[in-house]
Input
Amino acid sequence: MVGKRLLERQEKKRRLSHRVNLFIQIVLRASYQQFIRNTKMATEKSQLPSAAPPAMDSCRKKKSDDATFLQDVKDHIDEFIHASMDEHKTCFKKSISKMFGMSKIVAERTAAESKEVESALPLQTIVTE
Output
């Protein structure tokens, strides 16, 4: 009886570990692809006034606003484990897009600030003997 429970727990851990590995692979692949797309778009895109992108919703569906921290974490893990692969892919793509979108906004702000005109006078030296 105890041996059977132990085997079931080990099998659950193995499945969870496999899902986590898949998660990592998907995130890395999606982030790399998004990085390549953003790099290409940045080089091809002309300078247009940019509007802030709409805020994206979290992929996570919060079950209760008054849940304790541990209950919230448990719900989050359960939701992650029971989500389909398509749900994972969609959520990861949204998250990566949001990350790169935010970095793009910061880069555009920095570029706009650096476009300010800087004036400098040339250094003049006079050599006398």
User: Anything to note?
Assistant: DSSP finds three helices and no strands in the chain. Residues 61 and 79 are 8 Å apart (CA to CA). Helices lie at 2-44, 69-82, 85-114. Residues 51-56 have pLDDT under 50 and may be disordered.
